[in-house]
């Protein structure tokens, strides 16, 4: 992967696999998976899916969790993912057409599947790569796979928000971590309050930060996600 490909590429499989050549933490990779799951499930919220994402994020931040509850919720999401695909496939096979109803069921199934794979390893991404280029899929599976990959493609701006530019990593000066900046970054991270990022930029400037990429990211249009590289830099998270 080259820097221009990272900045403008739209192949999520290539970018995720390309990141393996950099020192990108497991936490950041999984926070991207969480961000995608949140985005995809948003039109069809499900309490089990929401709970699973929340528990994964707590684990990634090394907060205390009930391991038994984590396993139970993970199993419930997996069962839900398997069950949700059945009515969509049956409806498609019955009509032979991608009616609005079939597509709605399919999108919900993909959202749950994305949530189920939040803790997926790199094998998940290689499987997606195989899926993209497999020519023997059924009509239903081909559309299912294409929509799944398209969701990750649409969320690539969130990946760039979380990772930053791996070709030009920014070293945060400890002086930038003023009490105000740390408090703001903490609140932004905890509350998903990305509308406060411009205020964080002001606090960083007041603390002596004049790095153009740091300030531009905070004041840019986003989108942003938990794990944002600037907020993480202030909070010394990797």
Q: Concise description?
A:
By secondary structure, this protein is mainly alpha-helical. It is 68% helix and 0% strand.
Helix/strand layout:
Blueprint: H1 3-8, H2 12-18, H3 26-41, H4 47-60, H5 67-95, H6 100-116, H7 122-133, H8 139-154, H9 156-163, H10 179-191, H11 197-206, H12 212-219, H13 229-234
Number of domains: 2
Poorly predicted ranges (pLDDT <50, ≥5 residues)?
A: none
Cα Rg: 19 Å
Count of helical stretches? 13
Give the mean pLDDT: 89
Structural features, described:
The protein is mainly α and about 240 residues long. It folds into 2 domains: about 160 residues, no CATH class; about 60 residues, no CATH class. Helix content is about 70%, strand content about 0%. It starts with a helix and ends with a helix.
Descriptive keywords:
mainly alpha; 238 residues; 0% strand; single chain; globular; 13 helices
């Amino acid at each position: 992967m080259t820097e221009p490909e990272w900045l403008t590429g739209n192949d999520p499989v290539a970018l995720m696999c390309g990141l393996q050549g950099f020192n990108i933490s497991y936490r950041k990779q999984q926070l991207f998976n969480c961000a995608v799951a949140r985005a995809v499930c948003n039109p069809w919220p499900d309490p089990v899916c929401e709970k699973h994402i929340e528990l994964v994020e707590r684990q990634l931040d090394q907060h205390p969790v009930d391991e038994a509850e984590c396993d139970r919720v993970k199993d419930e999401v997996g069962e839900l993912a398997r069950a949700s695909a059945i009515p969509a496939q049956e409806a498609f096979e019955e009509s032979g057409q991608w009616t609005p109803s079939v597509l709605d069921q399919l999108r919900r199934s993909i959202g749950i599947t994305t949530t189920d794979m939040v803790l997926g390893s790199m094998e998940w991404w290689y499987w997606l790569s195989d899926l993209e280029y497999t020519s023997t899929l059924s009509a239903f599976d081909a559309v299912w796979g294409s929509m799944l990959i398209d969701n990750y493609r649409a969320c690539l701006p969130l990946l760039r928000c979380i990772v930053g530019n791996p070709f030009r990593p920014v070293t945060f000066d400890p002086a930038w971590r003023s009490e105000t900046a740390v408090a703001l970054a903490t609140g932004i991270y905890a509350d998903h309050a990305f509308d406060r990022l411009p205020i964080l930029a002001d606090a960083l400037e007041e603390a002596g930060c004049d790095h153009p990429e740091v300030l531009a990211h905070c004041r840019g249009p986003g989108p942003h996600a938990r794990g944002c590289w600037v907020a993480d830099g202030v909070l010394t998270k990797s």
